[in-house]
C-alpha cells in the first residue's frame, strides 16, 4: 500500500467508498486519470481522478457539471475530494458524424445541448470565471508576438473582442469549451463533458465549434460552412449573427495566443481566422 501511486491510492478509496467491483483505466490527460468501473457487475460508471496540484479550472468544471444535473451533460453521481463518480458514456464523439459527412446533424445536436445547458436552474451556478478574464491571453499579447503576415489578423480580432465586451449582454453559466470532441453519445443521447466553467455572453458558447472537429482545418476554413453554422446558431438558439461570428473570430485569435504561449503551431487558426473576420464584417 505504501508504494501506491496517487492514482492508485485515490482509486482504492473510491472503490471502497462507492462499493465498486472492478476498474479499468481508459484515459490519462494532463490533469486527470479516468477509469471505467462496475457496480455489482451490472452497471458501468466512470471515475475521474484529478492529479495532485492541478489548477482550479478542473475543479470549477466539475462543480459546473454537478450543477447541470445531467441535463445536457454527463450526470454526476457523487464527488469526494478530487474524485468524481459519474455516468459512463460508452459512445463515440460528435466528431464522428462530421467525418461521415453529416456536419449538419452534429450542429443540430450541439444546438440541443446548448439549449439544455443554458436552461435556468433553481439554484445559482457555482463560482465561475468571468468570460472577459478568460480572454487575458489575447488582450495581453502584442502584435509582434504574431507572424509578420498575421499581425493585422491579431489587431482586427482584438478590436472585435473589445467591441463585444463593451456592449452589455446577458450573463449565463458557460461550458466554455464546447465542441464536437467534448460531446459523447450515450443511452440518453448526446451529452457534454469537460466544461471550463465561465460566466458571460451565451453567444460565446458556440465560438469554439467553428474551429472543430480537431484535424479538419479545410472544413473549418470553408466560408460556406462558417455561414451554415452561423445561420443554424442564429435560427435555433436566437443568437445575434454578428455576435456569433465576432466571438468565433475572437476565440480563434485567443486560441492562437494560447498555442503560441505553449510553443504549438497556429496553422489552423491562421487558416480559419481570415474567413471568420470576413464573415463578421459582412454580417
Descriptive notes:
- This is Aminoglycoside phosphotransferase family protein.
- The chain is of the alpha+beta class and 283 residues long.
- It has a 5-stranded antiparallel sheet, with helices on both faces.
- A hairpin with a 3-residue loop joins strand 2 and strand 3.
- The chain folds into 2 domains: 82 residues, Phosphorylase Kinase, domain 1 (2-Layer Sandwich), CATH 3.30.200; 188 residues, Aminoglycoside 3'-phosphotransferase, Chain: A, domain 2, CATH 3.90.1200.
- It is built from 11 helices and 10 strands.
Number of domains: 2
Radius of gyration: 20 Å
What is the number of strand segments?
10
Distance between the termini: 62 Å
Approximately how much beta-strand content do the residues carry?
15-25%
Overall structural class, as computed from helix and strand content, comes to alpha+beta
CATH architecture of the largest domain: Alpha-Beta Complex
Estimate the helix proportion, in percent: 40-55%
The CATH superfamily title of the largest domain: Aminoglycoside phosphotransferase (APH), C-terminal lobe
What would CATH call the class of the largest domain?
Answer: Alpha Beta
Backbone shape: globular
Strand order of the largest sheet: 1-2-3-5-4
CATH-derived topology of the largest domain:
Aminoglycoside 3'-phosphotransferase, Chain: A, domain 2
**N-to-C SSE string, H for helix and E for strand:** HEEEHEEHHEHHHEEEEHHHH
Largest sheet: 5 strands, antiparallel
Helices, by number, come to: 11
Amino acid at each position: 500500500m505504501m508504494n501506491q501511486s496517487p492514482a492508485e491510492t485515490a482509486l482504492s478509496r473510491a472503490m471502497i467508498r462507492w462499493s465498486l467491483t472492478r476498474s479499468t483505466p481508459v484515459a490519462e490527460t494532463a490533469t486527470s486519470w479516468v477509469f471505467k468501473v462496475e457496480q455489482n457487475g451490472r452497471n458501468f460508471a466512470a471515475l475521474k481522478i484529478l492529479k495532485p496540484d492541478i489548477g482550479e479550472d478542473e475543479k470549477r468544471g466539475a462543480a459546473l457539471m454537478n450543477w447541470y444535473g445531467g441535463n445536457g451533460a454527463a450526470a454526476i453521481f457523487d464527488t469526494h475530494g478530487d474524485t468524481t463518480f459519474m455516468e459512463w458514456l460508452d459512445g463515440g464523439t460528435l466528431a464522428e458524424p462530421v467525418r461521415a459527412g453529416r456536419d449538419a446533424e452534429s450542429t443540430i445536436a450541439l444546438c440541443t445541448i446548448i439549449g439544455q445547458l443554458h436552461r435556468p436552474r433553481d439554484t445559482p451556478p457555482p463560482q465561475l470565471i468571468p468570460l472577459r478574464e478568460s480572454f487575458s491571453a489575447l488582450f495581453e499579447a502584442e502584435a509582434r508576438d504574431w507572424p509578420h503576415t498575421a499581425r493585422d489578423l491579431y489587431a482586427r480580432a482584438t478590436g472585435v473582442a473589445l467591441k463585444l465586451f463593451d456592449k452589455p449582454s446577458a450573463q449565463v453559466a458557460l461550458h466554455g469549451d464546447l465542441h464536437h470532441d467534448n460531446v459523447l453519445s450515450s443511452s440518453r443521447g448526446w451529452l457534454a463533458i469537460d466544461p471550463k466553467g465561465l460566466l458571460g455572453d451565451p453567444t460565446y458558447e458556440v465560438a469554439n465549434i467553428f474551429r472543430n472537429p480537431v484535424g479538419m482545418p479545410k472544413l473549418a476554413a470553408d466560408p460556406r460552412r462558417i455561414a451554415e453554422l452561423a445561420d443554424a446558431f442564429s435560427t435555433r438558439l436566437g443568437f445575434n449573427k454578428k455576435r456569433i461570428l465576432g466571438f468565433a473570430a475572437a476565440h480563434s485569435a485567443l486560441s492562437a495566443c494560447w498555442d503560441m504561449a505553449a510553443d504549438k503551431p497556429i496553422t489552423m487558426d491562421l487558416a480559419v481566422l481570415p474567413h471568420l473576420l470576413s464573415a463578421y464584417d459582412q454580417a
